[in-house]
Amino acid sequence: MKNILRNLLLAVTAVTLAVSCETYKVDEPGMTAVSDIDGNWVCFGVDEAGDSTVFYLEITNTTYNDPGKVWVTVTDMNTATYPYLDGVRFLANVDGLNFSCKDAETLAPQFVWNPYQERKYYSYEWYLSRQANSHVGKATIDGGKVTLNAVPTGGNMKASAIELTYTRSDDGEESQTWKISGMKNTGWYEDLAEYADFMNEHF
Asked: pLDDT tens, 97-112?
């Protein structure tokens, strides 16, 4: 009888240990289908008259992680519309490190991001319509391109570079075109200083 009880106790102990030691597969953090170009970018933009501004671009994958599409939010950091920031959101096509669109519908995001103050702002377009994702107009991107590890940053690191020609045509307004170039936002002030100094001087 003692042997039976001892065997049962050993069996229960073995099962308990097996259950408690069981490991569950945890998936590695995944990257999006457009991971080479998604993220946040700080850029200078120069219009056809030679006037400059600073743009903040957010490029994100779509809901279904389509490898051929991205959402692009372009925010002009010019404070002329303070306390709002002028930004629109639209879909663009992706081919590797290249992206473009032709007369994509622009929408009014409710919020846009200010990387210098690290806070959200209501978008100026949302303020005008008071409706998130309302229609604003059209946008075209020509020659959109990301170059990996092209910009030296602090700590002997390199960030990716971005360039594009951006045309925005709001309903009822004349279209505007900017040549835009910049870098992926590293989050370090030293890497943003050139853009922040420009904003402090001109805005």
From this structure: 999 999 999 999 999 9
